[in-house]
Amino acid sequence: MKKGLLVFLSLQLLFLTSCWDSNEIEDLGMIMGIGLDYNGEEKDVFSMTNQYVVPNNIEGTQTGSSGGIPYQNITLNGSNFFQIIRENSLETDRPPNYTHLKSVVFTERLLQQEPLKQLISFFLRDHEFRRTVAIFITKESAAEILAIEPTKEMFPAVQMKELTQNHNRSLYVQDTLKFGEVSKKITEGASFVIPEIGINNGRIRLLGAGIISNKTEKIVGWLTPEEIAGLKWVTDEVSGGLVAIKEKNSEEDQAVLEIMKASTTIEPEMKDGQLTVHLKVKSALRLAEDWEIKRDVFSEGWEEDLKKQGEKVVKEEIEHVITIAQEQQLDYLEFSTWTSIKQPAYWKKHHKEWERIFSQLPVTIDVDFTLTGYGTQDIN
After folding, report:
1. Partners of 254 in the beta sheet?
2. How far are the Cα atoms of 34, 183, 308 from residue 83, in angstroms, in the given order?
3. pLDDT digit string, tens, across residues 160-178
């Protein structure tokens, strides 16, 4: 019995050879980023830049060293993406592998000419392509963006994605927009915004956002970083950052309030057949920086004036971005989502004419700040 068991276990070792289907990293054409440009030529409509990993230049790999650039960008043109990917075989012995892809950059010109749905459909069908890949848009050349040497990360494509991880530290930074989320927005027929990436003093920088219309699925406008702040307050995406206040006594005097926590609720209500949206913002902040030397933080009620001024700043930011969206008749503020949830009967009856209704929709805004302390001190 014991001999039979021993023979059986020995035979199992033949079927447990490890990594039988593995590939050496040096043999893989791992792609970290993709840049898509529009050429407009009859035969070469598109331009695709693939950012390859160069394993030999990565310290820690078997043949690696730290002497060279760890990536190589190959840019090719063609009439479709599949053709371009196949043509990579003419310039490299490693076919593109997208399982480690981090970022994709679209140019403004490309999204002016082609619907986003068409541009992403090929990638969503590819079994190697993950729905967590980050999407960006740029006014520059996508090839130039991927050629900028990163300051912290090893690859430009990784640095781009990592920049959006700072969304909880700045109101000007959007959270990462993923391919899966874009696909969902398009399927729902919603307008949305894509983080904008650009070049500033030779470095990669987040600049704002491009607005994608649900009618054409093309870019129709831009938001500045300040307008991104207003959008984040509306869509309840504020998890950190600051509110800067210009003092009324002097332009040089200013105060900075650090956001500790924040929440926004959107309440669509019906009154006499009229839909109205009530937007309520609540935030706890602390005084982080103060240039007003006359302010006495030890006196009772010192925070009241700062509270009112901070509320006014945020309310104006919100009003501004709502005005922009209503003028464009594009609801990337998610009012439609909350209306369909809170007022389903109204939504079912009027959803086909939502753009017109949204452009004239009355919106009330209530901003309520609580100053919890100054520096490391807590008022309570």
Report:
1. 246
2. 15, 23, 59
3. 999 998 888 899 999 999 9
